[in-house]
Amino acid sequence: MSEDNLGGQRSSRGQRSEATNLIRGGLTRSGFDETAEAIYPTSGYVYSSAAEAEAAFAGERDRFIYSRYGNPTVAMFEERLRLVESAESCFATASGMAAVYAALASFLSAGDRLVSSRALFGSCSVIVNEILPRFGIESVLVDGTDLDEWAEALSVPTNAVFLESPSNPGLQIVDIPAVSKMARTAGALVMVDNVFASPVLQRPLELGADVVIYSATKHIDGQGRVLGGAVLSSQQFRDDHLMPFVRHTGPSLSPFNAWTLLKGMETLRLRVDAASASALAIASELQNHTKLTSTAYPGHPSHPQHELAMSQMEKGGTVLAITIDGDKTDTFTFLDSLQLFDISNNLGDSKSLATHPATTTHRRLGTEGRAKVGIGESMVRLSIGLEDRDELLADVLQALGSI
Ligand SMILES: *Cc1c(COP(=O)(O)O)cnc(C)c1O
Questions:
Q1: In the chain, is it the N or the C terminus that has fewer CB atoms within a 10 Å radius of its CB?
Q2: Using one digit for the tens of pLDDT, what is the confidence trace for 237-252?
Q3: Among the three residues 266, 281, 306, which one is the final residue of a domain in this structure?
Q4: 323 lies in the same domain as 346
């Protein structure tokens, strides 16, 4: 393991293409010249002398010290994602929520102000609305699709902006360049949860954001195997905020999970492109279906923010949200009639999955909280996978027919 590859700290920008970086980025071979990345299941590292240990702890020697701070397999994953994202630094975490919490909690202090879009993943919403306020952080919510609300909220000094685009599960789009510009004027750092778009469909750092957060559990693994997450940022954010926090709070990714995610990265582009093409085809077929009141998909012209979505995303992504023309019972009938889709709360998987957000992922928001972000009892989130597209469509159609 070369010394310049510790925890994604290499600051040079990737000069290779995305396709090559997804396969080879960060690859550092051991003395055994293995083809595939090695898994290093070690908690600690040994020193050739007491003086070397002292130098390592004093920060004079750049090397692995303890796997809470860094591990060779984890470092390969961090470097691969860093190169794909063209970020200065990447820190991998044990889950997406660990990444969201570490990014926000490492940066904000009591008395600080956070402005977020309201349409957030359920657990993100709990961090923003319940956990951070307990530590004296002021949390302000806006309708992420309304630039006037952003402008008003950011008309006073603010420390951080947090947003999801597209949002989970309603697929609302936030104008990342416009909000980033306003945030800069307000003195705020912009943090984007980029889970729905994935690293290959949207690059928030190029759109003006400062920090990008992933649940690697979703498209990066994409095969339902492991939890993981990542925070991508400037070297300065990493050195001044993130590392001092994570070193002592320990949200570290395991070497085995990092290895699984490295393998996931190799097929990320192929999987996301294929699933996005199927999602678009299925969304198109479902337009104006008599059993549906809406089919939301950012990649389809019927989405109210289609143009904005396409100005910042390469494609519409792998997820669509349909609303059944009926009540909760009808919606459950639809879900229970699916034969190919699994009922599950994950997304971005090679297996197509159907979720009822109101009773699962977004249950904690309560009826009123869900109403504010447009999650009704008849909404179903469909995460499109890699099965045969016609069979997926036929499954949705037969399940709709059973209502
Ligand atoms: C799933 C998800 C998370 C949380 O990720 P975990 O890996 O499950 O902790 C955060 N944000 C969004 C948008 C998600 O979909």
A1: C
A2: 999 999 999 999 999 9
A3: 266
A4: yes
